[in-house]
Amino acid sequence: MLATKVICPHCSRRLKLPQGENPRVRCPYCQAPFAVPGTAPVKAAPAPTPVLRALPFAPPPLAAAAPVASPPVPPTLPRRNRVLWWIVGGVGAIVLVALGLVLQELWVERPGGTNRPASTPEADSAAGASAVVTLPTTPRAPQPRELTPEEKRVNAAIDRGIAFLRKQQTDSGTWVPYGHPVGMAALPALTLLECGVSPEDPQVQKAAAFVRKAIPKLNKTYELALAILFLDRLGESQDRPRIKTLAARLIAGQTRAGGWTYDCPLLSTEYEQLLTEALQELPPLPRLEGVDERGTKPTEAGRKPQEGTSTPKESPAPGKIDLARLPQMIRNFPVMRPPESKQEMSRHDNSDNSNTQFGILGIWAARRHGVPVGRTLALIERRFRASQNQQGTWGYNFSIGGGGGTPAMICAGLLGLAVGYARDEGTERGHPPGQDVTSDPAIQRALKALSAEIGSPDPNSNPPANALNLYFLWSVERVGMLYDLERIGEKDWYSWGSRLLVATQSAEGSWHGQGHGASPLVDTSLALLFLRRVNFTYDVPTKFRLNAER
Q1: pTM above threshold 0.85
Q2: Tens digit of pLDDT for each residue in 438-450?
Q3: 118 and 45 in one domain?
Q4: Beta-carbon contacts of residue 33 (< 8 Å; ≥ 6 apart)
């Protein structure tokens, strides 16, 4: 059958239409209807429905291009040639129809195949009543749904929070030029990025320049971790060596109990390279009796690998590197010579779980850039398994068997336990793969304890703004996203937290509550990260997340 070539005036795609009376068509690429030259125009496509900014963004609509003039109609072929083309086209159409029927029969009867839905008279009637000819194409993506009033309030709160952060940045690139200036450049800038601000934004780039300039002397755990998270999220290749440098300092600063205190050592370029090379060759840490037990049952996948799956690479053979030839400073790092008993773990240890959870986030982000962190993650897991109390919580400081617990530290402990499972999915094998997270009693006790700390989403029972603990809220959000939980216990953690935040936001768009490190800039950043449901450990293997109890 002869075809007419036209150009879509909306996306400039070339289309072939069968000759005939097709007054209007719908472009298979941009889905916009338009009139074939010489016919009446059609109405423009409706504007897309707004999308909740706290959820993943929908793809932006294609911009409409300027109308393009239709090409000249080709000259009419001689009668003999037209008859020949009609014959060839008819034979071809018959062959294609017959082939389609055969393939349809094969598809319907094939085991495991999906039958296409049968047509109905109502659907056929509705399709025939339309005056627009729809060309065959791939199925359209589902249209965004209408936002609920609560979702619209969350969007508005996010917009006000972004506006507040934008107004507070100083000319130097940081938000607070004293105390922890690098952290107070990295955290708000990271928050802006997670709220959809472009990496090319001048404020983001100004913050990046401030962080890069401070790296040679940077040794504070909070700032090292936040700088890694920010540069990793910024996504510029020039920062890859900087991330490795910052991660080496975190690795060197880890204590014998697997945690961090406020400071980490500065390393020369030579020592940084020696440490990295040694960690690449050393085998995984051996099991520590009485600490490494997870109490989990191997799944069927753990007992017998399924077809088509790959097993982790074998660990390097012990003794490949001679530790005696390394400088004494490097030999003494706990990651090189870990403790051999629980008693050694707690000897002269002054680490805390707040610094430690930031250290974990920085180490995990550095893992994406090729930093060998397997032994570091093993020490982290040992720490939280050895220091959980019977109620399932952890205290602020490290203590064998656990001490008094705090709500935010429950989240830090769940983060530490998670990275122990996640490292099994890579080349650093510390435990048999395929273990079921839902049967881990340490994780289950912690989730139960955390659920008790989450309140009701009742909007009429909001606490005053200064009673809100943003550090804890952000920690809950991290656990919910990491373990892929819509509910923690029976509590809808996001509905509860988002209603509290919407109700307690100040008129200028900020939040300021109580808790660890509370300040308007820190609290506003943490509140926005909660509302946006940001997951800094997004690349924890899906197998781990989907096995978590919902």
Answers
A1: no
A2: 678 999 999 999 9
A3: yes
A4: 24, 25, 26, 27, 42, 43, 45, 132
